[in-house]
Amino acid sequence: xxxxxxxxxxxxxxxxxxxxxxxxxxxxxxxxxxxxxxxxxxxxxxxxxxxxxxxxxxxxxxxxxxxxxxxxxxxxxxxxxxxxxxxxxxxxxxxxxxxxxxxxxxxxxxxxxxxxxxxxxxxxxxxxxxxxxxxxxxxxxxxxxxxxxxxxxxxxxxxxxxxxxxxxxxxxxxxxxxxxxxxx
Length: 184
What we know:
Layout: E1 2-8, E2 11-17, H1 20-25, E3 32-37, H2 41-53, E4 59-63, E5 66-70, E6 81-91, E7 94-103, H3 105-135, H4 140-166, H5 168-182
Antiparallel strand pairs: 1-2, 2-3, 3-7, 4-5, 5-6, 6-7
């Protein structure tokens, strides 16, 4: 874990994030980070609002305490990441920025739905296999299908890893863009 302290203009912030190479090798498909800012939440949100109104290589959306930074539609591909930021504050001149990299919500929802479907099928077929074993009936089909479902889980995991690797360069560009906004 790296901790970098930046002093820029009016604000100082402490960044806690692993180096990009370590993020690429992590098991998690949606890396997270946290940055402590020595400024009011409203000021940090205003920086992102200003960036939204300026021409930039990314699309910035601000909704309440949330900021979404996305790749423009014309440059997006299926695995294009987006950066979701939430700025929270419990002190007057101090706030915390929580960041989350992930695919578009529609891709993530589809991905999780398929995982849920595979898990539900696995449990149902495991119950069916147990019933067949209890009754002394053949259960080879059920065990074969369970094995195929486990194989499908691995395929889904590696597809997610490939997608994360495909979007790695865009993820770093999003992060650097965010850093540029914060270093005012």
